[in-house]
Specification:
This protein is mostly helical. The protein contains 6 helices and no strands. α1 runs antiparallel to α2, α2 crosses α5 and α3 packs antiparallel against α4. The mean pLDDT is 92.
Length: 131
């Protein structure tokens, strides 16, 4: 596995539990993965993922959000919220076309995701029974 890929694969595997640590931690992990995916795409000259319909639709949604922000009551606030939205489609593309392409990463991610779902279900039941 290439050195550039180790950090995003680790962040992908840990991502479900990073959500428990708060929005900032998971946003940082998502943003780092997205930026490294763009670096990877640039270095490899592989932009095939941008030709996928779902990626284009999400990027078009982002452009729409930014354009709509120009007409909002609080334009600066609307733009402040819409500009960083681009990390979501790029992160999703990074998972689909980069990190989860590797069997080992996919296996660990599914295990961590199952553990996360089990933990959340047990926590929810515990809170329900305890009031």
């Amino acid at each position: 596995m290439k050195t550039l890929l180790k950090l995003p694969c680790a962040l992908t595997v840990l991502f479900p539990f990073l959500l428990l640590l708060g929005g900032a931690v998971s946003d940082i992990a998502m943003s780092v993965t997205a930026v490294l995916f763009l670096v990877h795409s640039y270095m490899e000259k592989d932009w095939r993922w941008t030709k996928e319909l779902w990626v284009r639709c999400l990027l078009l949604l982002w452009v729409y959000m930014m354009a709509r922000g120009l007409f909002a009551g609080s334009m600066m606030e609307a733009e402040r919220r819409s500009v960083p939205f681009v990390r979501y489609p790029i992160f999703a593309a990074a998972l689909a076309y980069w990190t989860l392409r590797y069997e080992l990463t996919r296996m660990y991610f599914l295990r961590v995701l199952a553990a996360f779902v089990l933990f959340m279900a047990c926590d929810g039941l515990l809170q329900w029974f305890m009031g």
